[in-house]
Amino acid sequence: MAKVGIKDIARIANVSLATVSRTLRTPDLVQEATRQRVLDAVAESGYKPNRMGMNLRTQRTGNIMVIIPDITNPFNADLIRSIEETASNNGYAVLLGDTQSSPEREQQYVDLVEAGQADGMLYFSGRNPFNINPDKPLLEQLPTMVNSNEELDLDGIDKVLLDNAKAASEAVQYLLDLGHTRIAAVTGPMNTKSANGRLQGYRQALQQAGVEIDDKLIIEGDYHIDAGVEATEKLLRLKQRPTAIFCFNDDMAIGAINVLQANDYRIPEDISVIGFDDILYSTYVRPALTTVSQPVQEIGRLCTEKLIARLRGSHDEPTTTYVSHKLVVRDSTGPAPK
Questions:
Q1: 272: phi then psi, degrees, rounded to nearest 5
Q2: Which residues make Cβ contacts (< 8 Å) with residue 266, sequence separation at least 6?
Q3: Which letter does DSSP use for residue 315 in this model?
Q4: Which of 3, 131, 206, 326 gives 20 to 30 Å between its CA and that of 104?
Q5: Looking at domain 6-49, what is its CATH homologous superfamily?
Q6: Candidate from 22-26, 67-71, 83-87, 253-257 with smallest mean pLDDT
Q7: Using alpha carbons only, what angle is made at residue 313 by residues 105 and 318, rounded to the nearest 5 degrees?
Q8: What is the tens place of the pLDDT at every residue in 211-229?
């Protein structure tokens, strides 16, 4: 006879994998009627949970899954370090799911959590990998989780976010105060909340200053250095070149600086460059990069603490915590050329 798995229990009970996993691990968090359906399905099928890696007494693995789009990104590397430190201090190990921005990989890692290989997850993506039934309680259909960086369009879960529009608006306002009006924007992928928020802030700052928005100065990137290189090459081919370039992350800003220097542009005398994130390398590139700083250590700590509190039984209302940002002025920005 074929071995019965957690997917079979979900099918028999007509619930999600997350609900089965939650019922087996923390039954007190599941509504009584749903909990009983799952337990009846377990009894009917003869299901035996896989004990590998699981504490026999607590029914927990002691693992937290971190699902993140790109571990090579310096910002994400610092984020993971903060998560691991906080998790370790609280007795948890971290499983790392590097999705490489692939929806299929995201789903695979979520499936691992729902199948019981981790107690909960930190989800740094805005794509929704869950099949939500609006007629059923939301939390019973989700694993224990916290969302950050790219906001997930789901209410009722804990989130740690940055006000991207406000942060970008302040960066552009700083350039405007320096006399710049031809300000280019090298965005992130426009299917992400972070890029849309930053573009919104860019547009708002220009509109409030009465500066006409030139769509030729807005080029979509992907948060990688090569995108900054390619976008800057396009901007330099314009008849009316920008006097400042706002890149939506530091990696792309570093790519922009390399292209400008290779073409004998002086930074900031000819063209100013501003980034976003304040990664470690931003202080070592020459000229040192002006950037919007995100508190990456705080983000990692808050996400992990929120998740662990849930895993330890917190029934507090889910909250969205907004972290602060700060404009860090260095040497890559200066007055607009006359």
A1: -90, 150
A2: none
A3: -
A4: 3
A5: lambda repressor-like DNA-binding domains (1.10.260.40)
A6: 22-26
A7: 65
A8: 999 999 999 999 999 999 9
Query: 284-308, pLDDT tens digit by residue?
Result: 999 999 999 999 999 999 999 999 9
One DSSP character per residue, 258-276 reads HHHHHTT--TTTT-EEEEE
Question: Which long-range contacts does 37-44 make (Cβ < 8 Å, 24+ apart)?
Answer: 37/13, 38/9, 38/13, 40/13, 41/9, 41/12, 41/13, 42/9, 44/12
Is the backbone peptide bond immediately before 268 cis, with ω within 30 degrees of 0? yes
- pLDDT value, residue 3: 65
63-161+296-323 topology per CATH: Rossmann fold (3.40.50)
Domain boundaries, the chain: 6-49, 63-161+296-323, 164-294
Show the DSSP H helices in the chain as ranges. 6-13, 17-25, 32-45, 74-89, 103-114, 164-177, 193-208, 225-236, 250-262, 296-311
Strands 290-293 vs 326-328: parallel, antiparallel or unpaired: antiparallel
